[in-house]
Write a structure and sequence with these properties.
Distance between the termini: 68 Å
Helix content: 40-55%
Radius of gyration: 30 Å
Number of strands: 12
Strand content: 15-25%
CATH class of the largest domain: Alpha Beta
Structural class: alpha+beta
Number of domains: 3
Largest sheet: 5 strands, antiparallel
Length: 364
């Protein structure tokens, strides 16, 4: 190769910097003294630092002593060192590796031995692993209970079908109830999966807010009457148009009313309504009940899939083990509302009431 040696060195340095930028992980190259020699933009973001970083000591920018100590160990031993580091009380998980990079030869009396510090953020990966583990455990539990019931009922039915036809009919009805629960569970699982993956197209168009409330009211009134719960509407400025997929939003309201009836004693009241926020940019929808309420420690988890807030509070006449349902309805509601750019919240007073609220953008 011909050409100016200094120019060639600069080209190599530029090439090396480009290689660093290709990495999807933060990478920092330091020397024996922990002085930063090279880095990529991911590292700048990680350290929340201002460029340039060359010459600055790593321990002056990275205030994570275990990681700095790991770099020192690699420098002293000349070996690759690696660890999994829990940051912010375990809320952030990093996989940190330090690798010696030896450059043979000397130039201007300097020892060119560098150390590459690479950091991989495992937080999301670990979260997904927990989600998958929880999903398998939850779905196994949800399927095991009704399947065991169906098997036991079928065995009992076999013994009574000839000797006691009336009793056999009761067992057939119970089997149908459990099979219906399983069918609903599978349907909701598939629907939630499609919504989460974005496979459910949202047909967003102007729709009158009052129309959404009254449609949900009409669909849920028979169920409320069957369980002797008063179902009422409370509509303010209902003529306002909102941007929504009416089918999906009515589904959210129906789900919320269904839950409210489930957890409201006979003689209680459920109100479904809407009002316009101050400023006129957002139309709020709510479902309020006079039910048993939700404990404060459960409020933050009720929108998780499969999470069930104290099944014992539900009416035993509802389909599902203990009347608790599948635990997927509120998760579906949350994803639908978020797909509309909104947020669903819940507040409750134990033993008195619960209120679920979400907003939709107003069409001007």
């Amino acid at each position: 190769m011909t050409g100016n040696p200094e120019s060639t060195a600069i080209n190599y340095e530029h090439f090396f910097q480009q290689l660093l930028e290709v990495s999807v992980r933060p990478v920092i190259i330091v020397d024996h003294s922990l002085a930063i020699c090279f880095y990529n933009q991911h590292a700048v973001e990680l350290l929340q630092a201002t460029e340039p970083l060359q010459g600055i000591k790593l321990d002056a920018l990275l205030h994570e002593e275990p990681i700095v100590q790991l770099v020192r160990e690699s420098i002293q031993s000349g070996k690759v060192c690696q660890t999994e580091y829990n940051k912010d009380n375990g809320n952030v998980i990093w996989n940190v590796s330090v690798s010696p990079l030896e450059h043979t030869g000397e130039q201007q009396g300097k020892d060119y031995t560098y150390f590459a510090v690479a950091i991989e953020n495992l937080t999301e990966l670990r979260r997904m692993e927990r989600v998958r583990s929880d999903f398998i455990a939850n779905i196994s539990h949800e399927l095991r209970t009704p399947l065991a019931s169906v098997r036991l009922l079928a065995e009992t039915l076999e013994d009574t079908i000839d000797t006691d036809p009336e009793k056999a009919e009761v067992f057939v009805e119970k089997i149908e109830t459990e099979v219906q629960y399983l069918t609903d569970l599978v349907t909701e699982l598939l629907e939630l999966s499609r919504i989460e993956s974005g496979l459910v197209p949202m047909v967003i168009e102007p729709v009158v807010a009052e129309q959404l409330v009254r449609e949900a009211m009409a669909r849920m009134l028979p169920l409320a009457q069957r369980h002797r719960v008063a179902l009422q509407t409370e509509i303010q400025q209902g003529a306002t148009s909102v941007a929504a997929d009416s089918k999906q939003i009515v589904r959210v309201l129906v789900n919320l009313v269904h839950n409210a009836i489930k957890f409201t004693p006979s003689g209680g009241k459920v109100v479904i309504g809407t009002w316009l926020n101050e400023g006129g940019q957002t139309q709020q929808f709510f479902v309020r009940d006079t039910g048993v309420g939700i404990r404060p420690e459960e409020l933050s988890r009720i929108f998780e899939r499969f999470y069930k807030a104290d099944r014992a509070r539900a009416k035993t006449t509802f389909i599902g083990p203990g009347g608790g349902g599948s635990g997927l309805g509120l998760a579906i509601a949350r994803h639908v509302v978020e797909a509309h750019g909104g947020r669903i919240t819940a507040e409750s007073v134990i033993g008195q009431s619960s209120t679920f609220t979400f907003g939709l953008p107003v069409v001007t």
